[in-house]
Structures
1.
Amino acid sequence: MATSTSLPAPAASRTGLAKIVAEFRAFWRQFFTRAFNPYRPELHYMRGPGPAWRAKHRSRLS
């Protein structure tokens, strides 16, 4: 009786298909994580005091 060390063709193709499906799922998971991330640091970035602060503190600045 002969033994084979490699996988039969259908099992090998399922392994390749599983790898492709896993890569596809990983891509979409990463895409949705980045595209719909609720934290947007640029929305919270403050450049300094604005005109309302300057108007309120005008007498102290001069």
2.
Amino acid sequence: MISENLNSALAIIKTQAILSKKFDKLNIHGLGMSDFIILYLLKNSPNKQCRRIDLAVKMGITASGITRLLAPMEKIGLVDRQSNTRDARVSYAVLTNAGERIYEEAKITAEEVAEEIFSSLKKKNHSILMEVLNELIAKFN
């Protein structure tokens, strides 16, 4: 027998694995889920740019982790690296026009996947789910 809290954690982990597998459909755009999230965050950042360290925090990963994720995106032209003119230690990830175009195309696929996953939830249950998830996110953010 396990505790209710551990059972909840395991259910969230299993749900995350299911969601990750469903969002593999983003591969048709040449993106993984992390790539899509980065493009989403940049698209919704002022001037479509974000300090790399802030992007790492938003993704819940380390500075070196964000570097590893951004490197291939930079190579294929979805994201550019931009230095800060005032502080050489600070650099930005900037969404390129190509990155924005791919994001907009991939967003359609992501919306279809999300619809497939959540359309069967009653509106009340969806609201409760979002409330619980946002509470957990706020606790650890």
